[in-house]
């Protein structure tokens, strides 16, 4: 399927966290996912080591088990997300995210593909140095976002989530991931979107976050 007719700037400004508009009834073609992976692997990594692995879960029982771990990790999703919104001074937006997050909470097991992006490490990094951690995260998250942008340009929706990482070990057992040497970094639902029209999201103004020459 050809990518949507979007410019690079369109893709960069309209790749939203998609939850309610994930098409739960339409399978995602493997070729489309492979195209997204090809594009993801053009992302930068420290010393170009490319220690990444992408686990794509389509098996219904495994998706259900993974969704359960997400739900366990996000025991009180509504309160948590509303608080995030309040922190940004936007209660209405916070409530909208909370409703949307609740939908994902309820339907995650129905999303046709659950992606768990991983990175290989010498050992668990929980007590690693700041620089080491920065290199690890910096060597996987750009590729994940690149995957998500590529997905958007192909009519697929994604949303970054992390709560299942509270139960990373259980997820590793479920998926056969070697826990001691492979870190899971997120859980990304992936599906065709219902409609392809998305708008830029509300964000702080760029000029508010720029610090020229000093903080
Ligand atoms: C590190 C991180 C963790 C997130 N965790 C969740 C999550 O657990 N559940 C969820 O539904 N969305 C989650 N999100 C999605 C954010 O809520 C979303 O990116 C943000 O609200 C902006 O949404 P928008 O791009 O649609 O404007 C997460 C995003 C990031 C970057």
Tell me what the structure shows:
With 215 residues, this protein is of the alpha+beta class. The protein is built from 9 helices and 5 strands, in the order H-H-E-H-H-H-E-H-H-E-H-E-E-H. Strands 1, 2, 3, 4 and 5 form a 5-stranded antiparallel β-sheet that branches. The radius of gyration is 18 Å and the shape is globular. The termini are far apart. Flavin mononucleotide (FMN) binds at residues 16-17, 19, 74, 97, 101, 104, 159-163, 201.
The helix-and-strand class reads alpha+beta
Helical content class: 40-55%
Number of discrete helical segments:
9
Termini distance?
46 Å
Backbone shape? globular
Core attributes:
215 residues; alpha+beta; five-stranded antiparallel beta sheet; 9 helices; 44% helix; binds flavin mononucleotide
Chart the SSEs and their pairings.
Layout: H1 8-14, H2 30-40, E1 52-57, H3 60-73, H4 77-87, H5 91-107, E2 113-120, H6 130-138, H7 141-153, E3 156-158, H8 168-175, E4 182-184, E5 188-192, H9 206-209
Antiparallel strand pairs: 1-2, 2-4, 2-5, 3-5
Helix pairs in contact: 2-7, 3-8, 4-5
Bound molecules: flavin mononucleotide (FMN).
Flavin mononucleotide is lined by residues 16-17, 19, 74, 97, 101, 104, 159-163, 201.
């Amino acid at each position: 399927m050809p990518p949507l007719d979007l410019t690079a700037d369109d893709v960069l400004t309209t790749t939203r966290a998609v939850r309610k508009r994930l098409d739960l009834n339409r399978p995602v073609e493997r070729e489309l996912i492979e195209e997204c992976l090809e594009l993801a692997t053009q992302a930068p990594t420290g010393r170009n080591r490319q220690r990444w692995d992408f686990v794509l879960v389509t098996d219904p029982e495994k998706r259900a088990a993974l969704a359960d771990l997400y739900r366990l990790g996000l025991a009180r999703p509504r309160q948590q997300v509303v608080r995030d919104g309040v922190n940004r001074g936007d209660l209405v937006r916070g409530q909208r995210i909370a409703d949307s997050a609740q939908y994902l909470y309820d339907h995650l097991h129905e999303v046709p593909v659950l992606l768990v992006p991983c990175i290989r490490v010498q050992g668990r990094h929980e007590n690693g140095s700041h620089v080491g951690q920065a290199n690890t995260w910096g060597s996987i998250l750009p590729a994940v976002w690149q995957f998500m942008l590529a997905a958007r340009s192909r009519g697929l929706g994604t949303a970054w989530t992390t709560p299942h990482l509270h139960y990373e070990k259980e997820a590793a057992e479920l998926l056969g991931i070697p826990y001691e040497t492979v870190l899971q970094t997120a859980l990304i639902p992936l599906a065709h979107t219902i409609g392809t029209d998305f708008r830029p999201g509300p964000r702080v103004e760029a000029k508010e976050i720029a610090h020229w020459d000093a903080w």
